[in-house]
């Protein structure tokens, strides 16, 4: 039997750690990191710190409107299908997207403004000089690199998804590939949380209508019941099937958009 079909979160974490040894360093990893982030059983992945909360609302209501204007001027940024995000407005959800731009996380907040999702990111993003603080303020959540802390991280993410209407964003590709028009291999982690907490997945894709221009397409939410063959199947298998199904939907979104561009030209 295919081992991937029965992968658990711990197995996915181990794969992530192994892949991390071979992958190229992203921009945040190449920045100066004067402070090392220590994750332990007391770390608040979903912060209760009032100072950070104040900075978040200050950033969202004062800073981000200028940020969105900058994105529009610099990259022609815009959103297609924003109305689809309203379909999960009253429920918690996992959101996923292709990771193809250094600014794709703050761009994503425009879809849910003023309530940004929690963004799960690799630990080094929080250690980069200045950038690390901004990531944390804008609801960044560091992904632990060990099993014990991963369980603590999972508990807090599960609590968010079970007891609030907030969104948790994950990049299933795991690492950035600037301006890539192709989807890469997906990891199962995001879909594990969707299955475990019985919440929908909102698929999104970044596309590039012209060189250095960026648009975001928001698809319709995917529920586990939408995936053929998942009824009565054990959760690990459901996770794999949901992952595959969402990736297919995202690929269709890319194909439809780029196919339309070719037709116009």
From TrEMBL:
<feature type="compositionally biased region" description="Basic and acidic residues">
    <location>
        <begin position="1"/>
        <end position="19"/>
    </location>
</feature>
<feature type="region of interest" description="Disordered">
    <location>
        <begin position="1"/>
        <end position="27"/>
    </location>
</feature>
<keyword id="KW-0812">Transmembrane</keyword>
<keyword id="KW-0472">Membrane</keyword>
<keyword id="KW-1133">Transmembrane helix</keyword>
<feature type="transmembrane region" description="Helical">
    <location>
        <begin position="54"/>
        <end position="71"/>
    </location>
</feature>
<dbReference type="InterPro" id="IPR002123">
    <property type="entry name" value="Plipid/glycerol_acylTrfase"/>
</dbReference>
<protein>
    <submittedName>
        <fullName>Lysophospholipid acyltransferase family protein</fullName>
    </submittedName>
</protein>
<dbReference type="GO" id="GO:0003841">
    <property type="term" value="F:1-acylglycerol-3-phosphate O-acyltransferase activity"/>
</dbReference>
<dbReference type="Pfam" id="PF01553">
    <property type="entry name" value="Acyltransferase"/>
</dbReference>
<keyword id="KW-0012">Acyltransferase</keyword>
<keyword id="KW-0808">Transferase</keyword>
<dbReference type="GO" id="GO:0006654">
    <property type="term" value="P:phosphatidic acid biosynthetic process"/>
</dbReference>
<feature type="domain" description="Phospholipid/glycerol acyltransferase">
    <location>
        <begin position="93"/>
        <end position="209"/>
    </location>
</feature>
